[in-house]
Amino acid sequence: MASERSPLIDYAIIGLLLVNVGFTAYATFRPTATNNAEPSASAKSKLDISDSQASALAAGVVKLYNAKDNFGLYQSFDSLAKAQLTQEQLTGQLNQLYPIMGTISDAAFSNAVLAGNDAGRDYFHLNYKVRLTGGPFTAGDMRLTVTPRDDGFGLVGFYINGTSQPGGQ
Q1: Phi and psi for 50 in degrees, rounded to 5?
Q2: CB 105 within 8 A of CB 131
Q3: In whole angstroms, what separates CA 72 from the centre of its chain?
Q4: What are phi and psi of 166, to 5 degrees?
Q5: Which of 38, 57, 89, 96 is the most buried (most CB within 10 A)?
Q6: Is the pLDDT of residue 16 over 50?
Q7: How many domains does the chain fold into?
């Protein structure tokens, strides 16, 4: 009798093994929301950022920054940014930044990267290489964080960093 039960147990174990492999394969390779054939809203938004739009946005910010027009720079921010940052806070930060960074003499658009998504709204980092004068740095990076709007892009962040100093320091 032991020889008659042995093939049945073997078949049961093999059957359970196949069910387990099938379930594991399904769980691993099942379609998810991120694997849609249709491009996501993020991908569509990213395609709408052109070099000319990015350059025009930077030109406006650089002009206000170089003129030390804190009020004008604050006014160029999107309402989402203004809800989190007061004009006084921005003025205080910029007044500390001006002597360190000097002025921006040239800005060249590098690339746009999806920074994230919050409540269905995409945010992008527009990255630039900049030439700096009047301070300890000669070159740097500038990043503008934007969100797409019906009439263009809303500015929600401004970041500048010096990367090189005279004499290669």
Answers
A1: -100, 160
A2: yes
A3: 24
A4: -55, 145
A5: 57
A6: no
A7: 2
pLDDT at 11: 53
Q: Under DSSP, is residue 67 helix (H, G, I), strand (E, B) or coil?
A: coil
Residue 61 lies in a domain: yes
pTM of the model: 0.69
The predicted-structure confidence for 119-144, as pLDDT tens digits, reads as follows 888 889 999 999 999 989 999 999 99
Range of the domain at 16: 2-30
Q: How far is CA 58 from the centre of its chain?
A: 16
Angle subtended at Cα 147 by Cα 145 and Cα 149, rounded to the nearest 5 degrees: 145
Q: How far is the C-alpha of 142 from the C-alpha of 127, rounded, in Å? A: 6
Any domain includes 24? yes
Please state whether beta strands 103-118 and 152-164 pair in parallel, antiparallel, or not at all (unpaired). Answer: unpaired
DSSP labels, 70-135: HHHHHHTB-HHHHTT--HHHHHHHHHHHHHHH-EEEEEEEEEEEEEEEETTEEEEEEEEEEEEESS
Structure tokens at 121: 């709204």
Instruction: Tell me how far apart the alpha carbons of residues 131 and 54 are, in angstroms, rounded to a whole number.
Output: 17
Do both 17 and 99 map to the same domain? no
- Asked if 100 contacts 162 with a C-beta cutoff of 8 angstroms, the reply is yes
Residues 70 and 148 in one domain: yes
